Amino acid sequence: MDYKKELLENLKNINILLVEDSLEARDELEIFFRNKVKKLYLASDGQEGYDLYKKYKPDLVLSDIKMPKLDGLEMAKLIREFDKNSKIILITAFNDTDYMYKAIQLHVDNYVIKPIDYNLLLESVLEISKIINLDKINKSIQNTLEQYKDIVDERSIVSKTDINGLITYVNKPFENISGYKKEELIGRPHSIIRHKETPKYVFEDLWKTIINKKTWYGTIKNKKKNGSSYIVDTIIKPILNINGEIEEFIALRNDITDLEESKEYFKNQSEKTNLDLKESIRIAKIYEDAVDKCNIILRVSTDKKIIFVNDAFCKISGYSKHELIGQPYSILRDKNIDIEEYEQSVKKLKNELDEGKVYDGNISNTAKDGSIYHCKYTVFPIKDKDDKIVEYMSIRHDITQIIKLHSELEETQREVIYKLGEIGETRSKETGNHVKRVAEYSKILATKLGLEQEDIDILFAASPMHDIGKVGIPDSILNKPGKLTPDEWVFMQTHSEIGYNILKSSTRPILKAAAIISYTHHEKWNGKGYPRGLKGDEIHIFGRITAIADVFDALGSDRCYKKAWELDRILKLLEEQRGKHFDSQLIDLFMENLDDFLEIRDRYKDDF
């Protein structure tokens, strides 16, 4: 889909209010916008227009200035007071600087002179519709995120503290498990629920981790208001502001008291020798029932066959007992995990168990319906009287909601970053597919070069923002259909430094990488690039990779100043610029893996 078609699709999703006192002009505008927008509202004066805006709150107002009752400027002022985020284009037959000045004071989005040039009007409306739709997408993302937060608030024990460790928020499950009311906790340190049996070093490690902007995971024993205890599986995450500074800490917990007490029971039982047989059997049966009711239980034979599952395991997996008993344990394998990686992890687990150790960890499995669920689990080797292992018993706790929330938070962050990158492309009339392709191409090159996986992931997330600095370049230069003048070209080159300055103060790895990419992706291997004339390895590898990805895609795409090149012509240029514009090693990798790049180009192609 080309740029114009993409914008016309955006226009179909917005509602427009037309305010015009001239019946002829209003009819003309109605005919022009009919079938182009989702909904069209019509008003014959400013007062009617304002009333319609309050009732329907359309996405964009297109209004004449000179009208009875309320003129366009007065109406625009009232609308802005009602909704500061409203989008307004004013139309007038009078090219009067006073009107222009008042319109600028109101921060209207555009100002159109009669007689209307409908091409210019459409272009202005299309650009605003793009912004409106991006805003709707971001609001949708935020709405989804809020719902996930609500789910966690219902299912998990949640608290928040300020930078000094004082409690600023607790939810209802926190009140229920601790026995304290919210009013008794807000403003107090977490030491109010600290249990003396939790070692001091646990809290020292916790604080050291989160104050260094890392996430802490662990198990903590806490004390209730009535003096009794409870045990929670805990994740504490520092929340950073846009400058990378810690604003607060959020903690998510799951009650695993039953699980931990079950583990303690098994440990103690192995040490007891003075109970008679009947009493031992009676107590063991009571504890077996308690463990079965409070936990997800699986037992596996030494040859990795399932020999027992309880009702809780059937519920989370979706299988019946009949479908699982006798089956190999691998039936539950997370199908997203490579088979070799899976077999290695099973071998490691078996080796530790065979040494008589108890194994703790997290695991993901595939349910009958194909969905993935996650558990915190402990595996015990079960031995006979001769100390020979006869089976393995796994006691589990469902942490799927916490894992999903973590994943959704990361995905939402990536989506917001991607939308930020798309803003620069929107200004220069390039499609969102351009930044998708650049990201995918960069990922391929980074992988083939052998970068660490963390660096590959950071580059993949950051490369869509390579041209974010274009937000600071005027449309007259950015979208000029012909060749730029020398002065215009000098101004155009500043977008690299503009992007760097926007992002450089961030301490977040992805935004720091995006700043580097913006600053270096127009440098050349021979030192003849811009903005600093860096040479060879002086250019960060992220910039060298993104340069090839960006040029390959740009040459193969229509732009306002050129038509797309044929593939052979593009490849010839890349070969010619090997060791001049581009890193020779990267060009060699590109050519050796050309099919991978062409597959990406076809997958995310623009439909013309």
Which SSEs are present, and which pair or pack?
Elements: H1 3-11, E1 15-19, H2 23-33, E2 39-43, H3 46-56, E3 60-64, H4 72-82, E4 87-92, H5 97-105, E5 110-113, H6 118-155, E6 157-161, E7 167-170, H7 172-178, H8 182-185, H9 200-211, E8 216-223, E9 229-240, E10 246-255, H10 257-269, H11 277-294, E11 296-301, E12 306-309, H12 311-317, H13 321-324, H14 339-354, E13 359-366, E14 372-383, E15 389-398, H15 400-427, H16 432-449, H17 453-462, H18 475-478, H19 486-493, H20 495-503, H21 509-520, H22 541-555, H23 567-576, H24 584-592, H25 594-603
Helix pairs in contact: 1-6, 3-4, 6-15, 16-17, 16-22, 16-25, 17-21, 20-21, 21-22
Key attributes of the depicted protein:
five-stranded antiparallel sheet; 50% helix; alpha/beta; 608 residues
Chain-averaged pLDDT:
83
Structural class: alpha/beta
What sort of overall outline do the alpha carbons produce when their principal axes are compared?
A: globular
Main β-sheet, in a few words? 5 strands, parallel
- The Cα radius of gyration reads 32 Å
Helix content estimate:
40-55%
**Helix count from the secondary structure assignment:** 25
Distance between the termini: 5 Å
Strand content: 15-25%
Total count of strands: 15
Strand order of the largest sheet: 2-1-3-4-5
Instruction: Point out poorly predicted stretches.
Output: 269-277
